[in-house]
């Protein structure tokens, strides 16, 4: 076990206490999928904590880190409806000076921050702020970015995170995809694989289907696990820095989707 820790990353926290203090770096990108049980549970837990600790730096004093909603876990709201927002706590926040907008590439619509409460967030694991935001009634039915401002200077933005739905009671459909096993940027064959030997997926393959998905325009696109190839066996995982790179590749591959993307994890994603 010690050898695995040393190989994973020499710069990682040196104790479990340090690891726990720095958790939530990789996991905010993904929705946990706990029904898939595999051997080496303890090892997976260790890898999970290490990935948590390495993905995000601590938020700066001039930037708000929006935890909910995000592109992998968007909010669905009707025009004039309300959504819940979770933000990590940083120094200098004024409890009464919040503003919010939703925006697309061409225009922004002012939203109303109806309440802001200091609260436990992230499944009750850390201190932060919980806001209730009302979107404008004239907001068009599309996928929007959410921007939160405090005191007109501390700003946080969450792209592709708010889906305006005209009517929840209307019928809808979804598209589902899984097992991309993404490892690299470029595809080496027409099927989108990044390797002819191993058959792992590519960022290009994720991006290639965006135009088709956007044309179909489902309520959302559901990615149901093994989106990346990070972990394979107790003695076979890609390492901390490469894991962060592959996660970023997958998230970047989704950037061209104009429909919401809901992402769950599989055993190879943790």
Number of strands: 15
Number of helices: 6
Give the termini separation.
17 Å
Radius of gyration: 19 Å
Cross-sheet strand order for the largest sheet: 1-3-6-5-4-7-8-2
The percent range for helix content is 10-25%
The major β-sheet equals: 8 strands, mixed
Give the helices and strands as they follow along the chain: HHHEEEEEEEEEEEHHEEEHE
Which structural class do the helices and strands define? alpha/beta
Mean pLDDT over the full residue set? 81
Strand content: 25-35%
| Low-confidence regions | 1-60
What spatial form do the alpha-carbon principal axes imply? globular
In short:
With 270 residues, this protein is an alpha/beta fold. It has helices at residues 2-8, 16-21, 41-55, 203-208, 210-216, 240-253, and strands spanning 66-68, 75-77, 82-88, 98-103, 108-121, 126-134, 143-150, 154-164, 174-177, 182-184, 201-202, 220-223, 231-233, 236-237, 261-263.
Q: Which secondary structure elements does this structure contain, and how are they paired or packed?
A:
Blueprint: H1 2-8, H2 16-21, H3 41-55, E1 66-68, E2 75-77, E3 82-88, E4 98-103, E5 108-121, E6 126-134, E7 143-150, E8 154-164, E9 174-177, E10 182-184, E11 201-202, H4 203-208, H5 210-216, E12 220-223, E13 231-233, E14 236-237, H6 240-253, E15 261-263
Parallel strand pairs: 2-8, 9-12, 10-11, 12-15
Antiparallel strand pairs: 1-3, 3-6, 4-5, 4-7, 5-6, 7-8, 13-14
Helix pairs in contact: 3-6
